[in-house]
Amino acid sequence: MTFTLDNSRMSERALDIADRVEAFICEKIVPYEKDDRRNSHGPTEALGDEMKEAARQAGVMTPHILEDGTHLTHLETACVLIRSGLSPLGPVACNVGAPDEGNMYLLGKVGSAEMKERFLAPMVEGKMRSAFFMTEPAAEGGAGSDPMMMQTTCKMDGNHWVINGRKTLITGADGAGLGIVMAKSEDGACMFLVDLPDPAIRIERVLDTIDDSMIGGHSVINIDNLRVPASQMLGESGEGFRYAQVRLSPARLTHCMRWLGAAIRANEIASDYANRRMAFGKPLVDHEGVGFMLAENMIDLKQAEQMVYWCADVLDTGELGTVESSMTKVAVSEALMRVADRCVQVMGGQGVTGDTIVEQVFREVRAFRIYDGPTEVHKWSLAKKVKRDWKKAQGE
């Protein structure tokens, strides 16, 4: 990696793990980018398992969670996960991708000892994947960016909860062993841990989407009289949105980390191309229009990196970091979109082919601008804070 990351505040343990992750990605995972076991819905299960076994052998499986079950700090996690993103397949191989990384974090914070042993342990070992069932079909008026629109219901029946509803864009549901299902009771939002597969949870179809880096793709789901033992409710009835907040900010931030790594790699490919490719008597990089695009990439990448570290610092104080993670999600996703777009432009026709990962990074980052809340929702939330702060300053 030629882009210089700021390691001035990183611990020795984080730098050691990050160096091993980067070496593993470059030496073992990058060659898989040409593997035929990739389809329009993502890497196949077999390819994922093979890469994870390679990660185990290299000692970089779930590298942000230590052997004693504790996590690296958010700042240290940034150091590691940026490197994992140097290949779109890296997060899958190292078991740090969405939705599993966020689900592991949530279970680690909220799950009971029994839940951790039954569900979290095999996830950390990379032996089980998970899915987070929240988003619902827009055509049916279901929940999307506004979770208060949730229509999936849950009702007590003896010592079980019975869940009914429809979900969509459920990442990784196809082949997952655990589902975290959100539904609403009379008390409010609830979360349940569900063993998968379950005949009451039917995958209607796996959607064709712009991105293809996650195993299982994104599915439309029908939940018909799903019975879940009361002991598998995560926390208390009506507290689901509060628990979601525990997961939300860190998950937004780890998205930023991983895709920052991908954008760094795309920029390096474009820079290499611009230095080697001749046109009109000199290398492309010597043409001001091209050189300026690469200069702007340097600026955007460095600003994105610093935003990630700033938000990580806030989360490491124990704060929820809702405002800071919204700001970071907007700034980083928009910056990386500009970077990826310039990389395609610098490489011209070559940039729109599958000969390099530049084309894939462009598609993936476009989807990232919507993951965990589109830019507009975060800006709307931040604007409400502006209004609240103004009123407070006026003594209202």
H/E series, N to C? HEEHHHHHEEEEEEEHEEHHHH
- Biggest sheet, spatial arrangement of strands: 4-5-9-8
The residue fraction in helices comes out at 40-55%
Global mean pLDDT: 96
Write a brief caption for the model:
It contains eleven helices and eleven strands.
Can you describe this structure?
The longest helix has 37 residues, at 240-276. It contains 11 helices and 11 strands. The protein has helices at residues 12-29, 45-58, 74-84, 90-94, 100-110, 113-124, 240-276, 288-316, 322-347, 358-368, 375-393, and strands spanning 38-39, 42-43, 130-133, 153-157, 160-171, 178-184, 189-195, 201-206, 218-229, 278-279, 282-283. It is an alpha+beta fold. 45% of the residues are buried. The model has no long low-confidence stretch (mean pLDDT 96). The N and C termini lie far apart (52 Å). The strands form 4 sheets. It has a 4-stranded antiparallel sheet, with no helix packed on it. Strands 3-6-7 form a 3-stranded mixed sheet, with helices on one face. Helix 1 packs parallel to helix 3 (74-84), helix 3 (74-84) packs across helix 7 (240-276) and helix 7 (240-276) packs antiparallel against helix 8 (288-316). It is 49% helix and 15% strand.
Please specify the SSE layout and strand pairing:
Blueprint: H1 12-29, E1 38-39, E2 42-43, H2 45-58, H3 74-84, H4 90-94, H5 100-110, H6 113-124, E3 130-133, E4 153-157, E5 160-171, E6 178-184, E7 189-195, E8 201-206, E9 218-229, H7 240-276, E10 278-279, E11 282-283, H8 288-316, H9 322-347, H10 358-368, H11 375-393
Parallel strand pairs: 3-6
Antiparallel strand pairs: 1-2, 4-5, 5-9, 6-7, 8-9, 10-11
Helix pairs in contact: 1-2, 1-3, 3-7, 5-6, 5-7, 7-8, 7-9, 7-10, 8-9, 9-10, 9-11
